[in-house]
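Quick one, T. Sequence first:
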Amino acid sequence: MEYINKALADFILYITRGAGAFWENIVLLQFSWPQVIIDLLLVSIVFYYIFLLLKGSRALHILIGLSILAFVFLLSKALQLFATGWLLDRFLTIILVAIPVIFQQELRRGLEKLGQARLFTSHEIKQADILIGSLVEASVTMAQRKTGALMVLKREVSLNEYAETGVPINGKATKELLLSIFFPKSPMHDGAVIIDGDRLVAAACILPHSYKQADRTLGTRHKAAAGLAENTDAHVIVLSEEHGTISYAHNGKLERNITPERLQQLLEGFYEPKKAPLKFKGKNPFVKRKI
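Structure tokens:
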């Protein structure tokens, strides 16, 4: 125990000395505070961009492995483990030379994105635009095919009680996945999907019916959409299997027979992407139709 405490103290002392040397260099070079702040801010942006670039790729696991090796190397220096330090020193030198080869694809993709001047584009805004496009395209395709569907968009109120009635999915919400789930011969087409952010949480979920809608022409799906919109802050896209129309339930109301442009406008209000809307191109298949 005494040896572990001593080793930990030596490591902390080693880190403290390194931080002190870094601060002394800043003082000796007489950097102004604005220079230091701008410098650290730029370094933070670079590391953040690198993390976004590597996120979800195999290169991230390689980077984590290299970070562990670097940590062990620093620990060996602090604890004066000469054999381990010598071995890792040689190994890390070889790795540094091989980095351009290891991260070849990631470096090329990063330079391409940098050349497109999209470095400072918000990741959340891009994700919202992609999701909105998927929902609109899937809705239009299913409406043209007269495929019934219910797509619930979660906001603040928990929808766990409804998600538990369905089949867990936990996948990215894409046009292809939605079309597969609501394909008429799919075992999960009868029910609703629940989408939280850009994740499709569950499918074949059972929703409560509305008892406030007096219109007897409403089908089961539309009553379920209206019922959920009355009880929660969720928004619901509903496709009519009989008439091939799109409706949208939110804030206790049901907008019936809406156009693709109106659906996109409602989704943009839900996700609030701060950029110019993407205009739906194509003929409007919902003109002069009733639910």
